[in-house]
Amino acid sequence: MKLTDAPPASAPPRTAGGLLPLLLLTNVAMYAVYLGVGGVLIPAQVAAIDPANKVANLGLVAGVSAIFATLFNPVAGALSDRTGRRNPWILGGGLAALGVLAVLGHARTVLLVAIGWCLGQAAMNVYQAALTAVVPDRIPVARRGVASAVVGLGVPLGGTLGVWIAARAAGTPATGYLILGAVVAAAAVVFTAFTRETKVPRDPVGVGTQVRAFLSCLAHHDFRWAFIGRALLVLGYFAVNAYQLYVLTDHIRLPPGLEPAAAVGVLTPISMAGMTVSTLVGGVLSDRLDRRKIFIGVSAALAGAVMLIPLFSPTWTGMLLFSALNGLAFGCFMAVDTALVTLVLPRAEDAARDMGVLNIANAGPQIIAPLVASLVVTTAGYGPLFLVGGVLSVLGALAIIPVRGVR
Questions:
Q1: Burial class (CB in 10 A: 0-12, 13-18, 19+), 387
Q2: Which tens digits make up the pLDDT trace of 308-363?
Q3: Torsions phi, psi of 199, nearest 5?
Q4: How many C-beta atoms lie closer than 10 Å to residue 320's C-beta?
Q5: Could you please report the per-residue DSSP string of 291-314?
Q6: d(C-alpha 318, C-alpha 162), whole Å
Q7: Domain ranges in the chain?
Q8: How far apart, in whole angstroms, are the C-alpha atoms of residue 330 and residue 335?
Q9: Which listed CATH number (3.40.50.2000, 1.10.10.60, 1.20.1250.20, 3.90.1720.10) goes with 16-398?
């Protein structure tokens, strides 16, 4: 696929100067929704509806909604590939998310929360699938690390913004949902208003051909192992992170007077600051040294090791240290791993579709993570949950070893 504003990798795109700030803006908005809604508003809403069954109910809501994320992300990516456009999908997903979140804030049963967040995940993953494809579309190979670092900054900055908004709207969750929906809708409008693209027509193909092509990228050796490594690391991370509010409520010994929701507001900026530093350093150094695997492997191994801190020290000090180190590890992994993936895509013309398949490694583990976490917590408590998360993260580090096409 060739866009008029996406010259070959040997030369920077004409829009490169203004594209990176817009990519940062749209990714900040996306992660503000994911972490603000998924990390604070949904758990708080579920706990308020049925406190006695909050762990199991959250597992159900998060798991079922992640199925929609898994389905809509690669499908939307394939559609944007076929239409040859990214901007309409980014805009449509952002505006749809605003509408869904405005309604979700008024849900009064667990079933309605689940339905609402399923639709929210669908809208957000339409947005994400097209947005993810912008990097391989328009950024030259030599700048993929920097671009991926900029994109990766969306996690710490967006997470901090989203949690800050959600924590302050805990008493009126409908307001929090509405504000976060407005943030992503506004970002989509700005991005599509200030980036131009030319439609690239494609010959229509049959449904059977589309389905076969959809999963063909997993037959590619390096892409398959990158997929596995990402899936394991994300599974380990979200098995713990999805239950952070409940961990602070039921497991960690907080200082007198510190409420769990306020504790999330303290821990999140610490974690996100670590992510910011490691995202920038990892992305730039991986470009300069032309090495990706060492950064990914070390950061994934560190993510596994730090899970031991809350296991052996379920204290506020332990959580502060855990959040800082876990942020460092996760930020570096995601920034450099995204750069690696763009270098092992099977076919450049199917970038959005293949990145959408890779995003199953982001969304798919979120289906399993709440269910696994719910089972572990209800049968063994919160301590073993950190051990499970650590093992999964280390396995994610080992999965990068077989990748052959990138150093």
A1: middle
A2: 999 899 999 999 999 999 999 988 888 788 778 777 777 666 666 677 677 677 76
A3: -65, 135
A4: 16
A5: --HHHHHHHHHHHHHHTHHHHH--
A6: 24
A7: 16-398
A8: 9
A9: 1.20.1250.20
The whole-chain average pLDDT of the chain stands at 82
pLDDT at 10: 36
> 326: left (phi > 0), else alpha (psi -120 to 50), else beta?
alpha
Which secondary structure element, helix H or strand E, spans residue 192, and what is its range? helix 173-194
For residues 258 and 250, give the distance between their C-alpha atoms in angstroms, rounded to a whole number: 13
8 A C-beta contact, residue 143 and residue 16:
yes
Query: Would you state the structure tokens that stand for residue 123, as one six-digit string?
Result: 């809208």
Provide the token pair at 204.
């229509």
How many helices (H) and strands (E) the chain has is answered by 19, 0
Backbone angles phi, psi at 315, to 5 degrees: -125, 165
- Return the amino acid letter for 248: L
3-state class of 85 per DSSP? coil
- pLDDT tens, 264-290? 889 988 988 888 888 888 878 887 877
Classify burial at 186, counting beta carbons within 10 Å of its beta carbon; exposed 0-12, middle 13-18, buried 19 or more: middle
Greater pLDDT, 153 or 21:
21
Are 264 and 248 spatial neighbours (Cβ–Cβ below 8 Å)? Answer: yes
Q: Which residue has the tokens 């992305």?
A: 283
How far apart CA 105 and CA 178 sit, in angstroms, is 8
**Amino acid symbol at 58:** L
Higher pLDDT among residues 3 and 149, named by residue: 149
Q: What sign does the dihedral 289-291-294-296 (CA atoms) show? A: positive
The per-residue pLDDT for 6 is 34
Residues 273, 330: Cα–Cα separation, whole Å: 11
Neighbours of 259 (CB within 10 A): 13
Tokens 């809509």 — which residue?
72
Q: 256 CB contacts (<8 Å, ≥6 apart)?
A: none
| Structure-token pair, residue 109 | 């049963």
